[in-house]
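Person: At home tonight, work slowly through the protein below, taking as long as you need, and write a paragraph about the fold.
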Amino acid sequence: METPDDRLPIVDLRNFAFDEAGAESIAREVDRIFSETGFCYLSNTGVPDELMVEIFEASKAFHAQPQADKEALAINAYHRGYMAPKTSLIVTSSVANVTKPNNSESLLIMHEVPEDDPRFGQDLQGPNQWPAKLPEFRETVTRYIDALETLARRFTQIIARALGLDPHALDHHFNRPTTFLRLLHYPPQPDAADDEFGSAPHTDYGFITILLQDNVGGLEVRRRGGGWIRAVPVPGTFVINVGDILSRWTNGRWQSTPHRVQNKNVVDRYSAPYFFDPDMAETITCLPACVPAGEAPRFEPVLYGDYLMERIDKNYQYRKSVSGGA
């Protein structure tokens, strides 16, 4: 039976922008949670409730289209577009021997890179794909992405405070952030076997993930001592978690916690994870504040783009037909 201890903590951002003492208190709370669990809910984020409703309406409209219309936007070499069910297998999972692909479908939208951008044509640098038959879709999604980027940048300042740094110490790593919005649909799997998942046990690759989930449930977070916590949907909140590169950046001080999704309900589940990561050209080196005096860092510096591409190339079937770059 679920007890209060099974619930993820809630971090209230209400006082962050207006109260220095409140900001420091939030930072200390985040440090404790990310050291122990790596996951929490965020409330009073400044993202309008009506925009949360609208992004789910847009996602449902996309996934309700005929399969042929969705597949017309099949994911391309820039890692943007539609991914059909059972086309991703998390072979880089460090927490499970995953043998079955994820039973979910999604539309992946990344940061927009126009043709006149010097990065255009490099790894993951290109335009998004938009559904032609849903004229309001792009505008809704763009407003949502803008709101989530604002929240992510705000939370990055909290992260810097939590690590004992100036609030703006990490900002320059995100001058051109690598971002992903994934509009996910999980079909019902009431009779799913123990090794059948909508999203198999894994950790996220990047910096932070900000997840909006509907009221169906199905997300579970692994405890450090074993067992799983149900991330029960809390209206008006997001779930935020530490990714692998942030854990590495903090020299392992913060946990990149395994999580999974099984939709054992008889209704569809929708979620919208937003991944906020550094510029692919940034080198990530363990922060000196996180390395004990007299000790060497646990991790070597890594170019984020190389780190990210290794994982994407291994986990997505379509990458096997991509010879590189775009």
Remarks:
- The two ends are 49 Å apart (CA to CA).
- Residues 221 and 259 are 4 Å apart (CA to CA).
